[in-house]
Amino acid sequence: MSAPNSLPLVSIVTPCLNFARFIEETLQSVAAQDYPNIEHIVVDGGSTDGTLGILARYPNITVLTGRDRGAADAINRGFDRSHGEFFTWLNADDLLLPGAIGAAVAALQKAPEAGGVYGEGWWIDENGARLDAYPTRDFDARLFERECFLCQPASLMRSEAFRSAGRLNPDFDLTFDYEMWMRFTRTHTLKRIPAPMAYSRMHRSNKTLGQRDGVFTETFQVLRLHYGYVPFQWIYGYACYRADKRDQFFEPLQPSIRRYLESLMMGLRLNSGVRIRYLVEWLSVMSWSGLRRRLINP
């Protein structure tokens, strides 16, 4: 591998608040990268659980402390202090896989038209056991209206592209990454690479699963902001969640004809300016034969 100073600098920012249970493994996953030109910046929002003591054992990282407006604001603060040509953030409970940064940098250097790249990721549980592959798809900016199809810790961007896209919006606490990709891909393309890059940790205390109601509400907000429309699958998922409080990850969504019917009124209300579009989508989801089956076996 080339000498460190001949390779582009990669900046990794980790937002952190009381993640003593996981932060050391995250730090080690960055330190173990075989790419030699990385700056790792940890932005701590005032941890009181021993996190700062762990960070002090890693002299090669930069630690910023102080109150912030949440993870998005912390990541922006770290980015402002960074110097890398390439940038990503890694949450304090996620992990990079060996060789991830080197593979991502090589792919970006071969694709000057791309604003970023993303590879394959896996979900792991709180103990680090692998659960399932992240459902990554080939790049299509239009898909963001339906789903976030890339695993964020398995991504790397050009710093200038991140800056020009407006960085992260701290007004969104739970879906700031999803919202950023919507903006980013208006002006920049992404390239999928066949490289295993990251583990994304899923546990009931993280925001994605621990604040499901807020995740749905904020997702509706960003979808209406960027697309003027909330698709059926999001509304149906919320209707099911409101009824049974299943997290729809460890506890899979349970199909329900009653929830399907409820999603009609909810969707028409949320899509008041495009009701015909929603009605057409709602009607297309369930065939008459499928509807009859659910009525007979609800």
Q: Name the shape in a single word.
A: globular
* Contiguous runs where pLDDT drops below 50 for at least 5 residues: none
CATH topology title of the largest domain = Spore Coat Polysaccharide Biosynthesis Protein SpsA, Chain A
Summing up helix and strand content along with how strands pair, one would put the structural category as alpha/beta
CATH class of the largest domain: Alpha Beta
Give the tally of β-strands. Answer: 9
The CATH level-2 architecture of the largest domain is identified as Alpha-Beta Complex
Mean pLDDT: 93
Approximately how much beta-strand content do the residues carry? 15-25%
CATH superfamily of the largest domain: Spore Coat Polysaccharide Biosynthesis Protein SpsA, Chain A
How many domains comprise the coordinates? Answer: 2
C-alpha Rg (nearest Å): 20 Å
- Element order: H for helix, E for strand: EHEHEHEEHEEEHHEHHHHHH
Main sheet makeup: 9 strands, mixed
**Tally of separate helices:** 12
Residue share in helix: 40-55%
Description:
The chain is α/β, with parallel strands linked by helices. It has 2 domains: 4-201, Spore Coat Polysaccharide Biosynthesis Protein SpsA, Chain A; 229-296, no CATH class. It is 40% helix and 19% strand. The protein is built from 12 helices and 9 strands. It has helices at residues 23-31, 51-55, 71-80, 100-110, 159-164, 176-187, 207-210, 212-227, 232-244, 257-270, 275-285, 288-296, and strands at residues 10-16, 38-44, 62-65, 86-89, 95-96, 114-124, 130-133, 155-158, 189-201. Strands 1, 2, 3, 4, 5, 6, 7, 8 and 9 form a 9-stranded mixed sheet that branches. β6 and β7 (130-133) form a beta hairpin. α6 packs parallel to α8 (212-227) and α10 packs antiparallel against α11 (275-285). It is globular, with a radius of gyration of 20 Å. It starts with 9 loop residues before the first strand and ends with a helix. The model has no long low-confidence stretch (mean pLDDT 93).
